[in-house]
Amino acid sequence: MAGLIPPIRPGVPGHSADRSPYVVDISSVILRFATTPKRIQILKGFLEFRQNFYALGVIDGFQWVDGSFCQDIETIESRDPGDIDVVTFFYTPQGVDLTAELIESITNLLNSEYTKPRFNVDAYGMQLGTTFTASTVQTLSYWYSMWSHRKSDNMWKGFVQVPLSPTEDKQAIIELNKIEIQEEMQ
Fold first, then answer.
1. Residue 1 has pLDDT above 60, yes or no
2. Are 59 and 164 in contact (CB under 8 A)?
């Protein structure tokens, strides 16, 4: 299991709630994964991606974060991660008219063709606070099943859940900049 986030925390019973997705703050993601110049670049894009949501008033929700970025892919496959995979679960902004322009802007942030070249984020999303339907269950099941296994060998793995938080992101940007400066000095 080396190099992967475990699907269930080692040493706890299988029925434990201490399992994937693990809820962590954005600073924990920065401190854990900002280990190479490529990862720092991807994290800068991820933080900018999150800032774009905040600029639209989307501040309530969370993101599932996964992909080769959340693995020790440098050791496992002798390569850098290419991007970070993110599903954003969000509430629409409160007290704001849902104009066609706002809806288009949010939709762009959930479209990988838009986000990959701009932010190094493979982006998807689901709106919270809507009717819970069979389609919702199917979509959630899809994400959980896809992200609970490594594609190359079907090994079980976990992923993290990061709350949207403009305040915490400000601190994370400072932390990432410090790490980048230290990396450049080496």
1. no
2. yes
